[in-house]
Design brief:
Helices cover 68% and strands 16% of the residues. It has two helices and two strands. The chain has a two-stranded antiparallel sheet with strand order 1-2. Strand 1 (21-26) and strand 2 (29-34) form a beta hairpin. The longest helix has 37 residues, at 36-72.
């Protein structure tokens, strides 16, 4: 990977602090696993944000195209 080990460790620590991953020691290694609940919460949040943005975009596009059609008349 084109990222340093310390950078990977920092990212994993942030994910762990955010409860998105769990950590398990196995000898000298640390194994990380995604937390389904944390990932689901992020997915729900993103769907809410992007869902609202998509609805606003659709409304703006519909208004723009109907306004454009009215100008051609």
């Amino acid at each position: 990977m084109p990222i340093s080990r310390p950078a990977v460790s920092r990212h994993l620590r942030l994910l762990k602090d955010a409860a998105l991953v769990t950590e398990r020691a196995e000898g000298t290694r640390r194994l990380y696993r995604l937390q389904a609940e944390g990932v689901a919460a992020v997915r729900d949040y993103l769907e809410t944000v992007w869902g609202e943005a998509a609805a606003r975009f659709r409304l703006a596009a519909d208004n723009s195209s109907s306004h454009h059609r009215a100008d051609k008349r």
